[in-house]
Write a structure and sequence with these properties.
- The protein has 65 residues and is largely without helices or strands.
- The chain has a domain of 35 residues.
- It has one helix and two strands.
- It has a two-stranded antiparallel sheet.
- 0% of the residues are buried.
Length: 65
């Protein structure tokens, strides 16, 4: 039985499109836009046009334990 809004299997999302595989080490990061802590949008490729960018993801720093 498949529940509405639930993925049918690992690697699939609710509308059955495949989740893209992550980039390999050394591949350029895909472009994205996020809202930063000061409420403004930050676009990766726009930031790269101005200066080098370091991406750091802290999975457990902002979660609820």
């Amino acid at each position: 039985m498949r529940l509405p809004g639930r993925a049918a299997s690992a690697g699939a999302i609710a509308d059955d499109r495949r989740v893209p595989s992550p980039p390999a080490v050394g591949d350029p990061a895909p472009d994205f836009t996020l809202r930063h802590t000061f409420g403004r949008d930050l676009n990766l490729h726009a930031a790269l046009a101005r200066r080098p960018v370091l991406l750091a993801f802290y999975v457990f720093d902002f979660g609820f334990a």
